[in-house]
C-alpha cells in the first residue's frame, strides 16, 4: 500500500518532454527526450538516481546527454527503471520503448478503440507508454510528433497547438504539437484515427477566438450538436461565475466507444466516452442530454481546476474532483432548475456515497492509503468532495467563496498542491469569518456519514423554541475513534400558518432573518429561539446543507405539513421522502412479522396533493411523486429485507395507482404534448411528470395505463418516452413484453448506446428469470465483455437489481463473480468497479451472506488477481 505520510518531492524535475510516436500495427515505437533538472527542494541531499515508472513495455535504448547506456548501466525492475545519478544540475535523457496498443484491453495508456488509437493516462497510464516519473507533481512542457499511415489514420491529435505537419514515405504522414502550458503526464493525450468533426467557435471575454471541434466516428456527426452547445455554455459560464477564461486557441473533444470512465480532461484534447457526447432526440433520453451537459462542463472546468492548478499527489484527488463536481453542479443548476438539480444530486449522493461510507470500502475524502489509485475515483472523492465545497460556499457566502477561489488561483496557478492549500486559501481570503478551520478540515480526514439527531421543545409560556442537536460518527475501517464535525445547519421554523418565523436566538438583538445557518460544532448543542408565538415545525438542513443523516422525531402530520408548506423546495421533497420511507419500512416490518400489509390512506392522500399541484412545477412534481429507491430503503434497515422492501414498495405504488387513477390519467394527458422536441426544463419536466404517472398506472395493472404505455412505446418520437415505456413493459407481466423487446433491438441494433439501454432494462427487470436472461444476453451479437459500456449496462445493471442480484439461492452472486474473474484478466478497472457490488454483503441475512462470501473467496483465489480487484475483495472480506 502507498501512504500519504510517505510523500516526498521528486529528486529530479522534468522541465521538457519531447515525444515521438511511430504508430504501427504490432509495434509502436515511442521516443521520449526528457530535459531534467535537480529538484532545488531536495538540494543538499547529494547526487540522486533518476527513478522512472514503467510497465508492460519493451525497453529498447536509454541515453543520457546523448551517450547510449548499456544494460549494465541502468537497473530495470518489473515496474521501474533506475538511471544512475547524472553528474550535472541538468541532463537530457532519451528513452525508446516499444508498445502494443492493439493488445491493450485494460484501456489504460495507449490503446485502440474500433480501429482508432487513443490514450487514457489518469491516473497512472502514462507509465505504460514510456518510462517517466509518473506523478502529478512533475509538470513539464510537451512537444509531440505523431506519425502513422495516412489512409487509416488521417487525423493525428495531441495536446496544445498544431505547429507542423507533413508527408513521409510509404503513405505515412505526421503532425507536430506544442503545448505551451506545463502539465503533469496524466494530462497527456494522443488520438489517431479515421474521424470526422464538427466545428464551432467561442470568443473569450478578452477577445481570444477559440476553435472548438468535436471528433467522432463517421456517421455520428448528427449527434454532436448538444455537446457543442454545452461546451460553449460552459466556457461562458466559467467566465461569468468564476472569472476563468480559456487559455489556448484550440479546444478538441474526441468521443470513443471504449472508455473506462465518463471522460478525461487532457489539456485541450478531452477524450470522452461516446455516452457523454452523442445525442439525438430519438436516441438519447433527457437524462442523457443532461448528463452530456454536465460532463462536457465538468471536463472543460478542469482546465483550471485540475490542469492549471493540479494535485501534488493522488491522495489530493478531491482537490480537483470535488471542486470540479461542485462547479458542474452549480453550472447545471444555473442552466436548468436549481432545486431539481439539488434533489437529483442528493439522491445520487445517498444512493451511492452513503452506501460506500457505510461499508468496508469507506474512506475519507482525502484517503490516507491505497493499493490501486484507480479504486479511489469514488463517490466519496467526487460527490462527497463536492459537498465539502458546497459547505465552504454555505459558510462563506457566495462572495466569500469567490474571494477564496480568487486567492487560490493567485497563489497556486501552475502548481501541484494539496487540499490543505485549498483550505488555507479559503481561510486566508476570509479573515473575518469565524469558522474553526481545523475542525472543518475533518471533512477531508474522517470517513463515514455523520448522524445528526434532533429534538425540539416549545415553551408556550416563555414563547421559546429550543432545538437540540446531537452528532455521532460511527467507526469506519482504520478509524475507530472520531471527533465532532463542523456541521452547517441551514434551517427555518415553519409557523402554524405555513409561513417561516423570524429567527432570533436568545441574547441577540440583530434583525431576525427567517432562514439561517447554525453551526453545530459540539457533540451536543442547543439553540434557543425567542419570541416564537406558537409551536413551529423545524425545517432542518435546507437545501441539504451538510452530507449527514438527520434523525428527527417528526410525526406523519409534521411531514405532511412540511410537504405542503416548507418554503425550501428541497425540504418539501425531503419531507415526502421521509414519510414514504417511514410508511414503506413500516409495511416491511408488518410483513416480516406475518401481519397483513395495509397501505395507510393518509400517505396516499398526501401524494395525491402533490399530484394536484403537478401543473405548477412538473419536474418537481415528478420527484415529489417518486418513492425512495429499494436500495436507499435498504440502507435504512439493520438487515436488508430484499423481498420485503420490494413487496412493500410495489404495494404502495399499486395503491397510489388505484386510488389516484383518474388524476394520474389526467396528469398524463395534460403533459403528453411537449411540442417540438426540446430539452428545456419545461419540456423535460412535462415528460418526467407524465412518465411518473404512467409508472403508477402500470404498477396498479390499470388497463388504460397499459394501453397508453404500449401506445407510447410504439408511437413516441423521443427516446425518453420510448425507453420509459419499454422499461415499464419489461418489468410487467404483459403478454407483449417479448415482442416489444425484440422490436426495439431490431430497430436499434446499429446504435451501440441505444443497445446499452436495452441490455440494462432487461438486467434490471424484477423477473424471476432475470439471471437466466442476463446470462443468455452475454452471447448476444451486440454484447461484448471488452466494451465497458456494455459491461456497465448488462453486468452493472444486474448487480444493481435489488431483488434478482440478491436472490436467496446465490445465483446472482455466482453470475457476478464469474464476470469479475473474466474481466480481471481483461480490464482490471472495470472488474474492480463490478466487484464493488459485493462490498455490502454483510448487510444481508445469513443465507445471503454465506452465498456472497463463497463468491468473494472464489474471486480472492483467482490466479493473477489484479491489484484493483484484490484491494476491494480484501477490504470486503476484512471489514
Ligand atoms: N479525471 C476524470 C474526470 O473526472 C476521470 C478519469 C479517471 N480515470 C481513471 N482511470 N481512474 O472526469
Ligand atoms: Zn473530474
Total strands: the figure is 31
Separation of termini? 17 Å
The portion of residues forming beta strands comes to 15-25%
Which radius of gyration do the C-alpha atoms yield?
28 Å
Number of helices: 26
Helix content: 40-55%
Domain Peptidase M1 alanyl aminopeptidase Ig-like fold: 448-551
Cofactor: Zn(2+)
Domain Peptidase M1 alanyl aminopeptidase C-terminal: 557-878
Protein name: Aminopeptidase N
Fold and architecture overview:
With 879 residues, the protein is of the alpha+beta class. It is built from 26 helices and 31 strands. The strands form 8 sheets. Strands 6-5-9-3-2-12-15-14 form an 8-stranded mixed sheet, with no helix packed on it. The protein has a 5-stranded mixed sheet with strand order 17-18-19-21-20, with helices on one face. Strands 10-11-16-13 form a 4-stranded antiparallel sheet, with no helix packed on it. Strand 14 and strand 15 form a beta hairpin. Helix 5 packs across helix 6 and helix 20 packs antiparallel against helix 21. The mean pLDDT is 98. Zinc ion binds next to helix 3.
Amino acid at each position: 500500500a502507498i501512504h500519504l505520510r510517505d510523500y516526498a518531492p521528486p529528486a529530479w524535475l522534468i522541465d521538457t518532454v519531447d515525444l515521438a510516436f511511430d504508430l504501427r500495427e504490432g509495434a509502436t515505437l515511442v521516443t521520449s527526450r526528457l530535459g531534467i533538472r535537480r529538484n532545488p527542494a531536495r538540494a543538499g541531499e547529494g547526487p540522486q538516481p533518476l527513478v522512472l515508472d514503467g510497465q508492460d513495455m519493451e525497453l529498447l535504448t536509454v541515453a543520457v546527454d546523448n551517450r547510449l547506456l548499456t544494460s549494465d548501466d541502468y537497473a530495470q525492475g518489473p515496474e521501474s527503471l533506475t538511471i544512475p545519478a547524472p553528474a550535472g544540475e541538468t541532463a537530457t535523457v532519451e528513452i525508446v520503448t516499444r508498445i502494443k496498443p492493439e493488445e491493450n484491453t485494460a484501456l489504460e495508456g495507449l490503446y485502440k478503440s474500433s480501429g482508432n488509437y487513443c490514450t487514457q493516462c489518469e491516473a497512472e497510464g502514462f507509465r505504460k507508454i514510456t518510462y517517466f516519473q509518473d506523478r502529478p507533481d512533475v509538470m513539464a512542457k510537451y512537444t509531440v510528433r505523431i506519425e502513422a499511415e495516412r489512409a487509416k489514420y488521417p487525423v493525428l491529435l495531441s495536446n496544445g497547438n498544431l505547429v507542423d505537419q507533413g508527408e513521409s514515405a510509404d503513405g505515412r504522414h505526421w503532425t507536430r504539437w506544442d503545448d505551451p502550458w506545463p502539465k503533469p503526464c496524466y494530462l497527456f493525450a494522443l488520438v489517431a484515427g479515421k474521424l470526422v468533426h464538427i466545428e464551432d467557435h467561442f470568443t473569450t471575454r478578452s477577445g481570444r477566438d477559440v476553435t472548438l471541434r468535436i471528433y467522432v466516428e463517421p456517421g455520428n456527426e448528427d449527434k454532436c450538436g448538444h455537446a457543442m452547445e454545452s461546451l460553449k455554455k460552459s466556457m461562458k459560464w466559467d467566465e461569468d461565475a468564476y472569472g476563468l477564461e480559456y487559455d489556448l486557441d484550440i479546444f478538441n473533444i474526441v468521443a470513443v466507444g471504449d472508455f473506462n470512465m465518463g471522460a478525461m480532461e487532457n489539456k485541450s484534447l478531452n477524450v470522452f466516452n461516446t455516452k457523454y457526447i452523442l445525442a439525438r432526440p430519438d436516441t438519447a433520453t433527457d437524462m442523457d442530454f443532461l448528463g452530456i451537459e454536465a460532463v462536457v462542463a465538468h471536463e472543460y472546468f478542469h482546465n483550471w481546476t485540475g490542469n492549471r492548478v493540479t494535485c501534488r499527489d493522488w491522495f489530493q484527488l478531491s482537490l480537483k474532483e470535488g471542486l470540479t463536481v461542485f462547479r458542474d453542479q452549480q453550472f447545471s443548476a444555473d442552466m436548468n432548475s436549481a432545486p431539481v438539480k439539488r434533489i437529483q444530486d442528493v439522491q445520487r449522493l445517498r444512493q451511492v456515497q452513503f452506501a460506500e461510507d457505510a461499508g468496508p470500502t469507506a474512506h475519507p475524502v482525502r484517503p490516507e492509503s491505497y493499493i490501486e489509485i484507480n479504486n479511489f475515483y469514488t463517490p466519496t472523492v467526487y460527490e462527497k468532495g463536492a459537498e465539502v465545497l458546497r459547505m465552504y460556499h454555505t459558510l462563506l457566502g457566495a462572495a466569500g467563496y469567490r474571494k477564496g477561489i480568487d486567492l487560490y488561483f493567485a497563489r497556486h496557478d501552475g502548481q501541484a498542491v494539496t487540499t490543505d492549500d485549498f483550505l488555507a486559501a479559503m481561510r486566508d481570503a476570509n479573515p473575518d469569518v469565524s469558522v474553526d478551520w481545523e475542525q472543518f478540515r475533518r471533512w477531508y480526514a474522517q470517513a463515514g456519514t455523520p448522524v445528526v439527531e434532533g429534538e425540539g421543545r416549545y415553551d408556550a409560556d416563555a414563547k421559546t423554541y429550543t432545538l437540540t442537536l446531537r452528532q455521532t460518527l460511527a467507526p469506519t475501517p482504520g478509524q475507530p475513534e472520531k471527533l465532532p464535525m463542523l456541521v452547517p445547519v441551514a434551517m427555518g421554523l415553519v409557523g402554524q400558518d405555513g409561513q417561516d418565523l423570524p429567527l432570533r436566538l436568545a441574547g441577540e438583538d440583530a434583525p431576525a432573518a427567517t432562514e439561517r445557518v447554525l453551526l453545530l460544532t459540539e457533540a451536543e448543542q442547543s439553540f434557543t429561539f425567542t419570541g416564537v408565538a406558537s409551536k413551529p415545525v423545524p425545517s432542518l438542513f435546507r437545501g441539504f446543507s451538510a452530507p449527514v443523516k438527520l434523525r428527527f422525531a417528526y410525526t406523519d402530520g409534521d411531514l405532511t405539513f412540511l410537504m405542503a408548506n416548507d418554503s425550501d423546495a428541497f425540504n418539501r421533497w425531503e419531507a415526502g421522502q421521509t414519510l414514504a420511507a417511514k410508511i414503506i419500512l413500516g409495511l416491511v416490518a408488518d410483513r416480516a412479522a406475518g401481519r397483513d400489509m395495509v397501505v395507510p390512506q393518509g400517505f396516499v392522500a398526501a401524494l395525491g396533493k402533490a399530484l394536484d399541484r403537478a401543473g405548477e412545477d412538473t419536474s418537481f412534481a415528478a420527484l415529489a411523486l417518486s418513492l425512495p429507491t429499494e436500495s436507499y430503503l435498504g440502507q435504512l434497515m439493520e438487515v436488508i429485507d430484499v423481498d420485503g422492501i420490494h413487496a412493500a414498495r410495489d404495494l404502495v405504488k399499486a395503491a397510489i395507482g388505484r386510488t389516484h387513477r383518474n388524476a394520474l390519467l389526467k396528469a398524463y394527458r395534460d403533459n403528453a404534448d411537449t411540442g417540438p422536441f426540446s430539452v428545456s426544463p419545461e419540456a423535460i419536466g412535462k415528460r418526467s411528470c407524465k412518465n411518473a404517472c404512467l409508472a403508477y398506472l402500470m404498477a396498479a395493472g390499470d388497463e388504460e395505463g397499459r394501453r397508453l404505455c404500449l401506445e407510447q412505446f410504439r408511437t413516441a418520437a423521443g427516446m425518453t418516452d420510448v425507453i420509459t415505456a419499454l422499461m415499464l413493459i419489461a418489468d410487467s407481466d404483459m403478454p407483449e413484453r417479448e415482442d416489444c423487446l425484440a422490436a426495439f433491438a431490431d430497430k436499434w441494433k446499429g446504435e451501440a448506446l441505444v443497445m446499452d439501454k436495452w441490455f440494462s432494462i432487461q438486467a434490471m427487470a424484477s423477473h424471476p428469470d432475470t439471471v437466466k436472461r442476463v446470462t443468455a444476453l452475454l452471447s448476444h451479437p451486440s454484447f461484448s465483455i471488452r466494451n465497458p459500456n456494455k459491461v456497465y449496462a448488462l453486468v452493472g445493471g444486474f448487480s444493481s437489481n435489488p431483488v434478482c442480484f440478491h436472490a436467496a439461492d446465490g445465483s446472482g452472486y455466482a453470475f457476478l463473480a464469474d464476470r469479475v474473474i473474466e474481466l480481471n484478466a481483461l480490464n482490471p478497472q472495470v472488474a474492480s468497479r463490478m466487484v464493488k457490488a459485493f462490498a455490502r454483503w454483510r448487510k444481508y441475512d445469513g443465507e445471503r451472506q454465506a452465498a456472497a462470501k463463497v463468491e468473494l473467496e472464489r474471486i480472492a483465489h483467482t490466479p493473477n488477481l489484479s491489484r484493483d480487484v484484490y484491494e476491494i475483495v480484501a477490504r470486503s472480506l476484512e471489514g
